[in-house]
Design a protein that fits this description.
single chain, 61% helix
Length: 134
């Protein structure tokens, strides 16, 4: 009924109504769990002595440095003119109704990186930004 009063589902979505409702509901449930008004087995009650905190993975800075070196070597060994051409084709196809998969495969074959391919797609399609309506 609230949605109809707002002018329908599309208007409600554009105004962030559904998102706010979901966020408010999630916050309320989280508060209930924290206050133990809502019991979640294994989270805030009925824990066993065998329950242990998860082991967090720690990143080794050496790995990041090694990856940067490998990426630089990869870029130095490929034909950058072919990569530039393949990325331009991705941008062209992404702006049309054509299937982008052949252009993506061609770019990968000539050594384009995932980041470069994503940049080409973002240049055409943009990036989703969540509305901050509260």
């Amino acid at each position: 009924e609230k949605i109809e009063v707002m002018g329908g589902a599309v208007t409600a979505i554009e105004n962030g109504f559904q998102k706010r409702e979901i966020e408010n509901s999630a916050y309320k449930i989280s508060q209930e769990i924290d206050k133990r008004e809502r019991i979640v087995v294994g989270v805030n009650d009925f824990l066993t002595e065998n329950d242990v905190a998860p082991i967090l993975h720690k990143l080794d800075p050496k790995v990041g440095n090694e990856q940067r070196v490998r990426l630089a070597e990869h870029r130095a060994q490929r034909n950058n003119n072919q990569v530039t051409s393949a990325l331009a084709e991705i941008s062209k196809v992404a702006g049309s109704t054509e299937n982008v998969m052949p252009a993506l495969k061609a770019a990968i074959k000539v050594g384009a990186t995932v980041g470069e391919i994503c940049d080409a797609l973002r240049a055409v399609w943009g990036v989703y930004r969540s509305s901050e309506a509260f």
